[in-house]
Amino acid sequence: MLDAVLAEKIKASVTAGFAEQIAYTQELVRFPSTRGNEHAIQDFVFQTFRARGFAMERFDMDREALARHPGAGRFSDAHSTAPLVVGIHRPRAEVGRSLILQAHVDVVPPGPSDMWTHPPFDPVIVGDWLYGRGGCDMKAGHAANLYALDALRRIGLQPAATVYLQSVVEEESTGNGALMTHLRGYRAEAALIPEPENEKLVRANVGVLWFQVEVRGHPTHVSAMGAGANAIDAAYRLIGALRRLEAQWNEEKAERPHFRDEAHPINLNVGRIEGGDWASSVPAWCRVDFRISIYPGVDAASAAQQVENAIAAFSRNDGFLANNPPRVTFNGFFAEGYALTEGSEAERRLGEAHRLAFGKPLETFVTPAYLDARVYALYDKIPALCYGPLGHDLHGYDERVSLKSVEKVTQAIALFIADWCAVEPLGS
Amino acid sequence: MLDAVLAEKIKASVTAGFAEQIAYTQELVRFPSTRGNEHAIQDFVFQTFRARGFAMERFDMDREALARHPGAGRFSDAHSTAPLVVGIHRPRAEVGRSLILQAHVDVVPPGPSDMWTHPPFDPVIVGDWLYGRGGCDMKAGHAANLYALDALRRIGLQPAATVYLQSVVEEESTGNGALMTHLRGYRAEAALIPEPENEKLVRANVGVLWFQVEVRGHPTHVSAMGAGANAIDAAYRLIGALRRLEAQWNEEKAERPHFRDEAHPINLNVGRIEGGDWASSVPAWCRVDFRISIYPGVDAASAAQQVENAIAAFSRNDGFLANNPPRVTFNGFFAEGYALTEGSEAERRLGEAHRLAFGKPLETFVTPAYLDARVYALYDKIPALCYGPLGHDLHGYDERVSLKSVEKVTQAIALFIADWCAVEPLGS
User: Fold this and answer.
1) What does the alpha-carbon distance between residue A54 and residue B401 come to, in Å, rounded to a whole number?
2) What would the DSSP string read from start to end of B165-221?
3) Dihedral angle at the C-alpha atoms of A307, A312, A313, A317, nearest 10 degrees?
């Protein structure tokens, strides 16, 4: 447990650097780093980390290695080619426990700009809220990792154990960025990812599959349309069939230890649809992008098989689809969920750090969303701590993060680092 | 009635020029003249008509004049700016009856190229079939108008009355091209439009409305999705409400003289859909392009009001839509249907020409599709003869037209011109 005087010094140091931390977070938000467009921000992060004195590595996705791994998301044309960036802190003496501090720079699309109060990549601050696509999810956390280490440095300290500061991509679509750091060989005794978890620790999360279903048929002039020959209608019938699979999976929640109390743990999202060419032509094609979640412990491949089976079974009995079997493509996440085993030393120490920053115990919860933490939990088999600030409307319009919350979370992270890794005087 | 010897000479002359007519039709098909992209083909048509010696006019849409006309389609950003082209034949002596020969050059989108056996704008001939987007609808008819006049010229004859050879755009989206020729002041005693009507004459057709419905809402991360907050789902519920309006209009067919024997005269087409940005974001927007037909005699404005009322009434009782009223935009056809009055001299003469070409009587039928003939029937109040060759899959893939049918239809058109306009020796 940290010395109380040191703890106060660390908290004060975070506060002293917080104006700079906000400005840096705003710089990150200004990069429109949607999928595939993270090259510039990763170069900026690389230069920033290098200027701090970290040993640097920068590497590409190894497609072949990923393709051999059961937890890799499927490649598509949209897959990012931006590099992964890792800053390495090596202490003079390895006294404490090693740590991975991870964050992703990719953000989901902003959607139509006119639905935003401020332009999506303009990091406007109103009261306690920092607005902008990706500010909450998770550039505030990305900056918090760096500024927690800065806070130690400001008072002449550094971790007395190896720390890997990882900046990844593809968190919003495949999870291949995090998985690539694993395949590259980085290992530590715990990992912390400051995703916007409303100041709580994630106990368990779901896995996620992405897939696209394409329906094609024989189009005609609208004057010759017959019932059932419309690909948009057929796609909607298929959505119904998949909602029945979703309902069936939700019924299984009683058997799932972490999710039995959740109202609706399994969500099927019809995220994107596009079909047809012309108001007066019967649409002959329709593509729908789906995202469905799976319980931790469920194998992604067997869940994918269930999805394919449900689509095939429905199509066999549908007049239009029987003759035009839909094409199913898994084109993103192919990821299992994870649970954070209770009682780990890492969780205990983070709980203590949180109490020192917030003055109250750390709560845990389960979340029906994908998290990169699954890589560290499932494949490194280490405590993977997903814990971060309060925010609203991530993936929505007017996404925003609470600056007060970011400050306290940064304090908690700095306190956790100092406790978990131990500290030594600055220098190399 | 035409002299039998002259009739045989005209038929033989069409046949003599038919290889050239096919080649010219293929040239027309090579232009990818989708909406807005008809500039090049209209210039080609202008040069072709001018080379034949027609007096030429070429003019733009008069947006203000169109906006004042109740039958004009609504302008949108997609509206064509290509010119209208008219070739004018003036006889030495106005002995016969004047005639408008009209055809459109715009074609509907080809859709995904890989669904075509041959590239959509490659006019491949296999057996009796000429393939290609727009070959059937209606570049074959466009060429037939010109080559029917050429057939007379080949035997030293020309119409003994004014003939307007009109080449228009926007037939597939607003009907504003045909309406613009009316607003420009062209008038004749009959109009013939060789749309692909399977060698029959159109007795009546429907009017058509185009509209787009946009649903918008408040998006969230998929982990926070609640039932009903998905704009794609909401759009599908709205489609259901509009299908109930379609069913109600179909029930009224008993009161509609020309359509009471049609199984399904009123078709609502869900032609195009697009919504959402990302598989893992709950979609906050969805746009759907609709086309619905109305009975001849039904006012377009009152039908549009019924559409708006149906959407508003449904939305008031829908949890999501009540707070996010859909936006309805009429963005194309705003056209009434027409009926060709039985017993006209023009119909009788076309029937006779058809019998001479095909050896059998001309049949009539009603069609649930928009036709430019409505402009001449409703606003010029003249017999508007919509009659043309056999084809398949217009608006679909592998659109094709029967060359044998085109040849006979061209004979019928040439015979009709010679009879309706009378003929005089070539010259001016």
Assistant:
1) 71
2) EEEES-TTTT-HHHHHHHHHT---S-EEE----TT-EEEEE-EEEEEEEEEE----B
3) 140
Nearest residue in B to A224, CA atom: B368
Contact A259/A207 with Cβ under 8 angstroms?
Answer: no
Using alpha carbons, select from B165, B141, B163, B155 the residue that is nearest to residue B11: B155
Those residues with Cβ within 8 angstroms of residue A233's Cβ, 6 or more apart along the chain or in another chain:
B270
Residue A33 is which amino acid?
Answer: S
CB nearest B221 (choices: A270, A333, A369): A369
Name A164's bridge partners. A88, A100
How far apart, in whole angstroms, are the C-alpha atoms of residue A259 and residue A250?
9
> Which of B263-283 are b and which e, b meaning 16 or more Cβ less than 10 Å from the residue's Cβ?
eebbbbbbbbbbbbbbbbbbb
Cα A387 to the chain's mean position, in Å?
12
Tokens of B272: 């195009």
A215 touches chain B (CB under 8 A): no
CA A398 centroid distance within chain:
19
Closest CA to B303 of B323, B333, B273: B333
Q: Are B312 and A310 in contact (CB under 8 A)?
A: no
- Cβ-based neighbours of A245, under 8 Å, separated by 6 or more: A268, A292, A306, A307, A310
The predicted model gives A102-118 an average pLDDT of: 94
Minimum-distance CB partner of B219 among A111, A221, A367: A111
Preceding amide of B138 cis, omega within 30: yes
Element at B381 (helix H, strand E): none
pLDDT digits (tens, 9 = 90+) for A119-169: 999 999 999 999 999 999 999 999 999 999 999 999 999 999 999 999 999
Q: What is the CA radius of gyration of chain A?
A: 23
CA B277 to chain A, closest CA, distance in angstroms equals 6
Report the mean per-residue pLDDT for chain A: 94
Predicted local confidence at residue B50, as pLDDT = 98
Determine which of B172, B223, B250, B290 to mutate to test the interface with A (most A C-beta atoms within 10 Å): B223
Per-position b or e across B146-173, b if 16+ CB within 10 A of its CB: bbbbbbbbbbebbbbbbbbbbbbbbbbb
What residue type is B282 in one-letter code? V
Cα torsion angle, A289, A294, A299, A303, sign = negative
Beta bridge partners of A131: A400
Q: Which of A14, A15, A45 is nearest to A27 (CA)?
A: A45
Query: What is the pLDDT averaged over residues A2-18?
Result: 96
Separation CA A423–CA A410 (nearest Å): 17
* Residue A235 to residue A219: CA distance in whole angstroms: 14
Q: Are B202 and B366 in contact (CB under 8 A)?
A: yes
Residue A396 to residue B370, Cβ atoms within 8 A = no
User: Residue B227: its pLDDT value, please?
Assistant: 46
Report cis status (omega within 30 of 0) of the bond before A56: no
A224 pLDDT band, cuts 50/70/90, is low
What are the 10-residue block averages of pLDDT along chain B, 428 residues in total? 93 98 98 98 98 97 96 94 98 96 97 92 98 98 98 98 98 97 98 98 96 82 59 93 96 90 91 93 93 95 97 92 92 96 97 98 94 97 98 92 98 98 90
Q: Do residues A171 and A38 lie in contact, with contact meaning Cβ atoms separated by under 8 Å?
A: no
Instruction: Please state, in angstroms and rounded to a whole number, the distance separating the CA atoms of residues A366 and B88.
Output: 77
Name the least confident of A96-105, A219-228, A315-324.
A219-228
Instruction: Please indicate whether, in this complex, the C-beta atoms of A273 and B274 are within 8 angstroms of each other.
Output: yes
Q: Write the pLDDT tens digit of every residue in A376-399.
A: 999 999 999 999 999 999 888 899
